[in-house]
Amino acid sequence: QAPLVESGGGSVQAGGSLRLSCAASGYSAGVYCMGWFRQAPGMEREEVATMRADGTTKYADSVKGRFTFSRDNAKDTLYLQMNSLKPEDTAIYFCAAARGWTALCSPYNSWGQGTQVTVSS
Q: What is the number of alpha carbons within 13 Å of residue 55 lying toward its C-beta?
């Protein structure tokens, strides 16, 4: 597989929106779980949203109703639409992949370099 490459980060005011993209060539739907994770300064990396091999998505409680994880298989690209952004969403956002079977995922072991998202109040 080609490396995972995130883009679309930036600075935005609270209440604004951003859409992150992840180029994911070689990570076929139905075979891999894909996920978005984030890490704020001084904090541990946390799971934001995941898409299992069976296509089901799961969101962290902190982003439910605000973030949407989608996939364009024709473009081998993942998206994370982030609306109603809050200062606490400020972090480096990472795209990641893991082998998957239906709703099960192995540990995520392929990671992009990350893209910075900064939300000001």
A: 2
